[in-house]
Amino acid sequence: MSNGLFNWTYRDVIEFLKENDFVFSNEREGSHEAWKNIKTGAMVDINFHGQKSFRPRTLETMICQSKISKKIWREWASR
């Protein structure tokens, strides 16, 4: 499980997005996936690299793309 905004894995991000109304939209080039929010239309581009944690700046980009506040991401991570 993640710790704040550190140590988020692909699985953590996908679980969070699914709980917040995102669905898999399509696979992009290579290991990139697009996830779309069915209510807001926000798109999140995720680069899948196995069990490695995302770098904080990469996660920050996904947070901005999701249009969900960092506070909600942190709260989800601390449960």
Lay out the secondary structure.
Layout: H1 10-19, E1 22-27, E2 32-37, E3 43-47, H2 56-66, H3 70-77
Antiparallel strand pairs: 1-2, 2-3
Descriptive notes:
A hairpin with a 5-residue loop joins strand 2 and strand 3. The longest helix has 11 residues, at 56-66. Helix content is 37%, strand content 22%. It is globular. The protein has a three-stranded antiparallel β-sheet. It has a single domain (10-77), classed as Hypothetical protein (Metal Transport, Frataxin, Chain A), CATH 3.30.920.30. With 79 residues, it is of the alpha+beta class. One of its GO terms (molecular function) is mRNA binding. This is Addiction module toxin, HicA family.
Summarize the structure.
The protein has 79 residues and is α+β, with helices and mostly antiparallel strands.
User: What is the strand content?
Assistant: 15-25%
Question: What is the mean predicted local confidence, pLDDT?
Answer: 90
- CATH fold topology: Metal Transport, Frataxin, Chain A
**What would you report as the Rg, rounded to the nearest angstrom?**
12 Å
Number of discrete domains: 1
The CATH level-2 architecture is identified as 2-Layer Sandwich
Class by helix and strand content? alpha+beta
Shape: globular
Order of helices and strands: HEEEHH
Helix content: 25-40%
**End-to-end CA span:** 9 Å
Unreliable residue stretches: none
What's the CATH class label?
A: Alpha Beta
- CATH H-level superfamily title: Hypothetical protein
Q: Notable features of this structure?
A:
79 residues; alpha+beta; Metal Transport, Frataxin, Chain A; three-stranded antiparallel β-sheet; 3 strands; 37% helix; 22% strand; endonuclease activity; stress response; hydrolase activity
